[in-house]
Amino acid sequence: MKNLKMKKHVWILIVLLGGGFLVLYPFETTVVPNWRVRVVDEGRNPLARVGVTEYWGHTSIEADEHHGESTTDDQGYVTFSQRTIRASLLRRGLRPLINRLSVHGVDLGPHAYLIVSGDMNSTTDNSDYRPGKPLPEEIVLRRLK
Description:
4-stranded antiparallel β-sheet; 10 strands; 4-stranded mixed β-sheet; 24% helix; alpha+beta; Immunoglobulin-like
């Protein structure tokens, strides 16, 4: 009888440790896939050697936004590698609740956007990414009037 109780306690301990591991293990999630985009001006001419910054985050999992910088090639193309983050099931469950309490309001889910450096008197069209929609393949740098 004592041996049976001991086995039961061992199994309970194994289940609790396994559950704790599962809840705390940081699973990887892709925020933005590989992104190759061409930067052009309003006349669709490629913009060579222009700085581009990619901002990305997953507000359902984390509060911070990340960024990476690169430069277009001679044909106006720039490539950003896949962006991933790691988060436990516990964090994935708590973060949306915390975000909903924010006085500023927070969009939930993954997002990314690109900012083209240079002339402050310009803006870009089609530089945002949202899951379920195709990645923009071209960004038009438009001068403000």
